[in-house]
Amino acid sequence: MTTLTRPEGQASSQDAGAPFLSVRDLYVQFATEDGTVKAVDGLSFDLERGRTLGIVGESGSGKSVTNLAVLGLHNPRNTTISGEIVLDGQELTGASSRTLEKLRGNKMAMIFQDSLTALSPYYTVGRQISEPFRKHTGASKKEGRDRAIEMLRKVGIPQPQTRVDDYPHQFSGGMRQRAMIALALVCDPELLIADEPTTALDVTVQAQILDLLKDLQQETGTAIIFITHDLGVVANVCDDVLVMYAGRCVERGSVREILKTPQHPYAWGLLSSIPRLSASVDVPLQPIKGTPPSLLNPPSGCPFHPRCAFRDQVGGTRCQDERPPLALEHGRGSACHLPAEQKQSIFAERIQPLLGQAG
Amino acid sequence: MLRFLVRRALGAIVILVLISAVTYFLFFALPADPALLSCGKNCGPQEVALIHHNLGLDQPIPVQYWHYMVGLFVGRDMPIGHCDAPCFGFSFANQQPVWDIIKDRYPDTLTLAIMGAAIFLTIGVGLGLISAAKQGKLFDKIASGVSLTGQSVQIYFIGPLAIYVLADQLGWLDHGHDVDWAHNPVGSITGMLLPALVMSVIFWSNYSRQTRSLMVEQLSEEHVRTARAKGMSSRYVFFRYALRGAMGPIVTIFGIDLGSVFGGAIITETTFGLHGIGQLAVQAVLQTDLPLEMGVMLFGATAIVIFNVLIDASYAFIDPRVRLA
Locate the ABC transporter domain: which residues (chain A) (predicted)? Predict the structure, then answer.
């Protein structure tokens, strides 16, 4: 079922039956020489067709790792994945590499961040775009090339008939990222994972690429996971947002809820560290104190407690001892020990003035 | 592309001229007088002066060098007789034209080089690829150990060992002897198998290690991950994407090694008693035979320089980024 309309402000889309993509209690661990890195630590989320889920968080919070796990791209030699990833009724964890190969690039595709390194320098853009199309549809070389030209035109590359034979280094950064998108979309995937697709681009190109993705989603009803640390981008494209910290989901909700009334101290920190064009230049930005924790040895209890300015208000050592559950209500909730009323009052009194928005 | 190649070729010629000049002038820094060598025991100053004149050694060194270089291209008339271009002069030791000696010796070197290179490239890259595909598994560990051993042993150690085991005891291979393509083509190949195999050991260990580490590095590259994310099979990704990326450096070291084996393999030739260019070089140095030294040196240098230009040219085929730069 393809939903093109996006319900605003209502996070839980209560479709009949199971969600299109369902991730349950996902754990991803890497064995390294220094020990086990718990890159994703019990993450759950759902995604419906036609909707866009933003995953935000600092570097190393497990955003990309989660999505590489969905595609099954981790090296099985040093990675342990447990939990459930169900795509359209099909279980992906533990699926054979053959099964995954059939799905990758076909039903689920990924746009990578740095198109210069993510595209092979040795093959033409056209060949790289047509490869998955030919593999998944059995098309001929000629049909593959035509499809590549069609895709390049779709993503707005001028003169696609000639540019199709160019190598990636002959493209500009923005064009290369478009080619990367064309590559991901060539088989009309039903799930598209975009891993910081616009981070390396300047803002005008960024806006064009975001519009392009939105248009393509309108057209095909693709479900999109949008990984980013840019909350401006989140506001622009996402329906729902998942805030990740130390491999866990610390807050979930609709984009409006997360950006207007965030509940988790980490989300407050993220929002207060964004510069605003309208803000007075005299008001300093408020960075989150400290650094992201090492995932080799994550903090006990709430992983954010060493950096949290509000842990004293919880009382006792609950933040250090007890892992706060993610209490979801209609798809909205945060993993924090602070009582709901207290979170509201702290946000209204101390955080909102920093954000410069009217209540 | 053509301009690039022409520029590289011109640079190569400059390098060859420099090498020839340095070799030529350095020879005269040696204390030995070549005239005394070809003069026998009771040699008076008069005889020495005559030999000096006959060999052209009575002229100033730059003039000698100039005549030598001109002779390379147009031939020259020497007191000892006429010498056609390319004239490398006459050997001081046995008065034969150097060019004829080299031509006589070259089939050994050429055969050994081609067979050895084919063996070390196949075994080395093959082992490296399998190791990379089976990272951390038993095969990988054994192959790494064998490669390390191969790189640390010396030809004059494994050479006799291989002769004893493979030729004497098992009788699988010939002992190794000079080639004679005109009269005995099959024997030319079988006679060179053992030397080529032994020579390849010190090379292929390098290739297998390099190939393995290049492939491991390539397999973690982002464009390889993209290829996997497209749903391409792991075999396809391994050969079409990872190997493609690893090819540049492999070709580079292969070109360098080819240059050196085509210039003569001194130790292998000596171990197996082959009469190739490497052995000739040793002989020339021992006899302070300047024309022969120059000939062998220029020959080896030319081989190395040619293969270097070929590597540069092949890069354009391997890496499209070079093609257009």
Answer: 21-271
DSSP H or E segment with residue A226: strand A223-228
Of B229, B232, B318, the CB nearest to A73: B229
* Per-residue tokens: A247: 């491999």
Rg (CA), chain A: 21
Q: What is the number of CB-based contacts under 8 A between chain A and chain B?
A: 74
Smallest CA–CA distance from B137 into chain A, residue: A77
At residue A30, the 3 state secondary structure works out as strand
B96 backbone dihedrals φ, ψ, rounded to 5°: -85, 155
| Contact list, B227 vs chain A (CB under 8 Å) | 120, 131
- Give me the residue spans of the domains in chain A: 21-245, 261-355
B223 and A170 within 8 Å at the Cβ level: the answer is no
Rounded to the nearest 10°, the torsion over CA B209, B215, B218, B219 is -130
Contacts of B24 (CB under 8 A, 6+ apart): B61, B64, B65, B68, B290, B294
Contact between B231 and A106 using a beta-carbon 8 Å cutoff: yes
Domains of chain B (ranges, CATH numbers): 2-83 (no CATH), 98-324 (1.10.3720.10)
The mean-pLDDT minimum among A11-20, A254-263, B146-155, B217-226 falls in A11-20
Length of chain A as a residue count = 359
Cβ proximity of B246 and B214 under 8 Å:
yes
Residue of B nearest to A69 (CA): B229
Give A95-133 as a DSSP string: --HHHHHHHBTTTEEEE-S-HHHHS-TTS-HHHHHHHHH
pTM of the model: 0.81
Domain A21-245: give its CATH architecture.
3-Layer(aba) Sandwich (3.40)
Residues within 8 A of A (CB atoms), B 171-230 only: 221-230
| Residue to test with chain A: of B217, B220, B223, B234, most A Cβ within 10 A | B223
Q: Within 13 Å, how many C-alpha atoms sit on residue A229's CB side? A: 17
Interchain contact, A169 vs B321, CB within 8 Å: yes
Ordered per-residue pLDDT tens for chain A, 359 residues: 444 444 433 334 444 467 899 999 999 999 888 889 999 988 999 999 999 999 998 888 888 899 999 998 888 888 899 999 999 988 998 888 889 999 999 999 999 988 889 999 999 999 999 999 999 999 999 999 999 999 999 888 999 999 999 999 999 988 999 899 999 989 989 999 999 888 777 888 788 888 888 888 888 889 999 998 888 889 889 999 999 999 889 999 999 988 888 888 888 888 887 777 776 777 777 778 888 888 888 888 888 888 888 888 877 788 888 888 887 877 788 888 888 888 888 888 877 777 765 44
Q: With contacts defined as CB-CB under 8 Å, which chain A residues touch B135?
A: 77
Q: Which residues of B are less than 8 Å from A183 in CB distance?
A: 226, 230
List the A90-91 sheet strands across, edge first.
Answer: A35-47, A21-32, A79-87, A90-91
Query: Which chain A residues have a beta carbon less than 8 Å from that of B319?
Result: 121-122
Contact across the interface for A120 and B245, Cβ inside 8 Å: yes
ipTM of the prediction: 0.83
